Amino acid sequence: MAPSIRLSPAARSLFDEPLAIAVQGLGPRQQVTLRTSLRDETGELFQASARYQAGDDGELDLARCPALPGGSFSGLEPMGLLWALQPQKPFWRLVKRDVLSPFLLQLEVFEGHGERPGRLLAQAQHERAFLRDGVRRVPVREGRIRATLFLPPGTGPFPGIIDLYGTGGGLPEYRACLLANHGFAVLALAFYSYEDLPKGMKEFHLEYFEEAVNYMLQHTQVEGPGIGLLGHSKGGDLCVSMASFLKGVTATALINGSVANVGAVLRYKDITIPPLGVNLKRIKVSKSGIADIVDALNNPLEGPDQQSFIPLEKAECCFLFIVGQDDHNWKSEFFALEGSKRLQAHGKEKPEIVCYPGAGHYIEPPFFPMCAASMHLLFGKPVMWGGEPKAHCEAQIDAWQRIQAFFRKHLRGKPSGTSSKL
């Protein structure tokens, strides 16, 4: 019997779902190297490989067989061939631009454990999809809003969430659509560097974000009475500002966000919040040219920088802080703890803070490979994001479940207790 790769699900799975990988038809205790390859939409190649030894029966099940030293990872890692994918081009991050098409994953089995691949024994292809069947993708161009709404299958209404990314700009949709697969109505919202929105990050007007909140609150497919906010990095502090000043926000989840306004002036009606100061002299650059910017921002508790601290005590919502303790973009854990202190000092509920040792800045949906360093748009050079691949991957899986549980808990409309009968 010739060796073959057995996958479950067989041909297609959602990107945030586990994929079971096994090889059958090998010789007893045969040594093989498994390799995965994936090309992003720009054609850049990501690869991972691991060394294995089949069982006495010639079976190799990655859920039971540990990887041997010498590959991209070692130990019992059933999903290692996905989370360990690394770009062949330096400082390149895996992102999904078109959520309607899947990523195509190539799996290959080679003979032996040599530095160069041995004879090819088996190969397979697998689609890693972003949209579950029946999820609707609705481009939104209402008023000033530039966004995409994802609606789950079924009649609804569904708990509603606005999803914001960081300084990369544009309109990333992949996290929003993966969340919609789990029963949420999610609006991926662009806020700069997209279509006719401002090109740069000079100042933001909260009225724009208020339009998006009102759009969701009035949507027939969104279950009231309030909505949730999910933000990563710069998107996180924008979510804190939205929760602090706008009505209709019930739950706010931040992934390595800031409680100070960063990078741009924020305006709302007659209120102006200046950006937190930056000292470029505190940036460290390694021999390889990668910048560590973790100390660049000033302390929002000191001097004039206190003006940049967002008054989150005004918020009428619950908060969840997801923190990578090895975040090298900024001090996420410090921000979360200071936000918690401020809320409690004003008699507000203590927020939920979940800290992940060994997790870096880009805590993405499950099984996105960790990005250790990539180009930073504001600094114009590659910066270090932090993280250790295995710990970071585990953090992504856990955080994804916690974010969904948080929104399910706080966004389900509570019955008012009054009878609807006239």
From TrEMBL:
InterPro entries: AB_hydrolase_fold (IPR029058), Acyl-CoA_thioEstase_long-chain (IPR016662), BAAT_C (IPR014940), Thio_Ohase/aa_AcTrfase (IPR006862), Thio_Ohase/BAAT_N (IPR042490). Keywords: Fatty acid metabolism, Lipid metabolism. GO terms for molecular function: fatty acyl-CoA hydrolase activity. SUPFAM superfamilies: alpha/beta-Hydrolases. The active site is at 233 (charge relay system), 327 (charge relay system), 361 (charge relay system). Residues 205-412 form the BAAT/Acyl-CoA thioester hydrolase C-terminal domain. The keyword Lipid metabolism applies. Residues 16-142 form the Acyl-CoA thioester hydrolase/bile acid-CoA amino acid N-acetyltransferase domain. Signal peptide: none annotated. One of its GO terms (biological process) is acyl-CoA metabolic process. Belongs to the C/M/P thioester hydrolase family. This is ACOT1 thioesterase. The gene is Acot1_0.
